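FIELD: query
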Amino acid sequence: MMNGAIRVSLLPFLLLATAARGAEPGGTISVDEIVRGMRGYGLTVFEGTRIDTFQVEVIDVMRGRGGTGDVILARFSGLGLETAGISQGMSGSPVYIEGRNAGAVAFAYPFASEPIGGITPIGEMLEVFERGEADEGSAAGGLPEGGGHSSSPQGPAPIGTPLLVSGFPGRLAEEVGEFFRPYGFVPTVGGSGGAAGEGEDWKALPGAAVGVRLLGGDASLTGVGTITWVDGDRILAFGHPMFQAGSVNFPLVSVEVHARIPSRYISFKLGSPIEAVGALVEDRRPGVAGRIGAVAPTIPIEVVVDAEGAERREYRYEAMDDKRLTPMLVSWAVQNSVLHGEKAIGDGTVRLRLFVDLEGADDLERENVYSSGAALDQLEEDVLLPLQVLANNPLARPRIRAVRAEVEARDGRSVARIERLELEKGRLRPGETVRGAITLRMYQGETRLERFEMALPPDLVEGELLLRACDAASSEEWDSKRSPNRFATKDINMLVRYLKELRTNEGIYLQLFRAAEGVTVDGREMPELPESRLRVVREPLHADDGDLVKGRVVASRTIRVDAFVTGCRSLAIEIDRDAP
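FIELD: result
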């Protein structure tokens, strides 16, 4: 007959063998059954994919801590925990008491002199499965604003989630890290992905290291934790939220641990993602849930960089699909590609062509140019803006099927400042042609003259007009003040059209205004409408027929300049039927 000591020492291995067949052994132990002094063990990975055992002693149960659920307070030992303490990446490490799953290691005390931490009860974690099944077919639709983690000032804090960062240069890696810190992520340098065959030893077992891949390809971002519970193809992990985003569909990957890095603050696991193994489907307060073998949708990103003095290069990435995070991931992928082939600071000129393949809406194409000592920052904003508008508009959320960015980077600034606006005549008849010239001051160089002509409408009424010759930013600001509802769209394709038509930085925008009420209908400005039509729009019962605007655009044209245009000039023009 097997004695007690041998029975205890073999139990972890029997558990692993049973779990390998796809069933969680031994069942669970309720938090109500757990009392001070009970002993057990936990499972985690500190090297490669090998699951090792550490010891657990229950200190007490903290009930309803801060209204966020019960926490089992415990002391851990073995596997060097006495000196290294609890490590980031241990989140989700299952704890067994009396051979039954008690929950997941999830909380720690930074700077603690002993390895004391908190365990999320397995009963609360299993509710994540039930909540997910009840909400099946729905999705949370994006990350919550701010962080999803919470902790009391003197209580245990959720163990930070190592964010394995690979392929990003220092400046961009810092930006990425700062974005994710409020969610409890701790950026660490990791590998980008495993080589062929590395994942053969990884199995979806309690204690195995698992990750959620936010970005893959030529740069990667992966959040790492540990599997707590396995039931067929379903798993529970982490013991605390990742983003607390509710129902999700994010790529789940296997993880190899290279080393545990000891720290006086809190130690952490250093690792690399290996390969896709499933999908994360629930992200709730007690933990996360996934399905092994499921395939989460990802968005392919292709970036082509043609930098001066370097070979043309192509970069490829895959981003998770989330309405708040995807625009950031695409922007970082584009910036990362440019930084690999171009200097990070100093004068430069960058041209971006952005192509977004959409499902459920017309495809989006944008082109713009930036030239300054901060051209990359301007590029970041121009990638983010259309993607964030598409993701968060109230009309519909078209799915992004693919993104392609073409970037040309050149040394030096190519800037043209609007210095002077002049006209041949300041008094004209309706139907005449406005003729004039714009003087541009090139960056550290000569002046350049751009002549223009602009036909006046033949039915133009007499009076004073204002002619503006301005850069893109000044023109957009002017229009937004003059016509606040210009972008109040009725359908998603109209919104895409507006994004396509946003002014670009290499244009001089000439607009001739009359200081009188005008109308926009379906986003289009109607110049010189008769008073009868204006009365209809003013009538509250017909407010949906159009929007009043402050000032009518009676004529406009754009002059393209092969440079980044800045500045704004304006002149008054008199319309007089008796003008010479």
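FIELD: remark
The domain at 308-411 is CATH 3.30.1490 (Dna Ligase; domain 1).
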